[in-house]
Design a protein that fits this description.
5 helices, two-stranded antiparallel sheet, mainly alpha
Length: 242
């Protein structure tokens, strides 16, 4: 006899529950294979699980869509901050800006390369340093940097900060819906196991092929072991002690 395997995907869970419910709804009173209590529990659960699955898929799609936009915003912020620092460093090298004014920006006066901006944390840090530094230098009588202006840099920096917070909210919502779905799966697996146990118990005295087919009609899924012969109608004609 092949062995059964419980569903391990959401679609398989839905299929198992729907099949069992549909079969149960066709049964006459007093001929139930699965108890009314279990089928009622399965129907209630199925409705909740379907809604939660849709909700999770929607929040995930929303997060993916928002992330595409967010990555472009991160790219823009990195581009403008990096470009501003490059223009500023060139001004220092040309002597247009005093080298020690780099300290306003938390930049090493003797280093004229762009700091590492590969992480979002670095962007947050250096964006603030550059904006604060430029404002401080201007208050001390310095001339503003153009192309890009600090105002342009600030616009992209603030948009980056805003979307970063929004992206965290998207991730939090998606994670919460995922956790709810995981918890529901555990309950659903228990219901499916109960249904399958009741079905197999009902047909335990049937001949092998007949038992297999009747159980499959309720959504049970069976797999043959490697090298195991598949059951056929002929197997039911063979005496049990043969």
């Amino acid at each position: 006899m092949p062995y059964r395997r419980l569903p391990n995907t959401d679609q398989a869970r839905l299929r198992a529950l729907r099949t069992a419910i549909q079969r149960a709804d066709k049964e006459n009173y007093g001929e139930q294979v699965v108890s009314y209590k279990t089928i009622h529990e399965a129907k209630t659960y199925l409705s909740i699980f379907e809604k939660q699955l849709i909700q999770y898929q929607q929040t995930l799609e929303s997060q993916v869509s928002a992330n595409k936009r967010y990555q472009q915003i991160v790219h823009n912020a990195r581009l403008y901050i990096s470009h501003f620092i490059q223009v500023f460093n060139l001004s220092v090298i040309r002597g247009d800006i005093k080298k020690d004014h780099k300290l306003f920006y938390q930049l090493d006066p003797n280093v004229h390369t762009v700091p590492d901006l590969s992480t979002e944390a670095a962007l947050l840090n250096w964006g603030k340093c550059i904006i604060d530094g430029e404002n401080e230098r201007l208050r001390n009588g310095g001339l503003p940097i153009y192309n890009p202006t600090i105002a342009k840099v600030k616009v992209h920096y603030e948009v980056f900060k805003e979307y970063k917070s929004t992206q965290k909210l998207h991730q939090s919502t998606t994670n919460r819906n995922w956790e709810d779905l995981v918890n529901l799966r555990e309950k659903g697996d228990a219901i499916i196991l109960d249904i399958w146990n009741q079905v197999e118990a009902k047909y335990k005295n049937e001949k092998p092929y007949s038992r297999l087919m009747k159980c499959k009609n309720y959504g049970l899924v069976y797999y043959y072991r490697k090298g195991e012969k598949e059951l056929t109608k002929i197997d039911d004609l063979v005496p049990a002690d043969a």
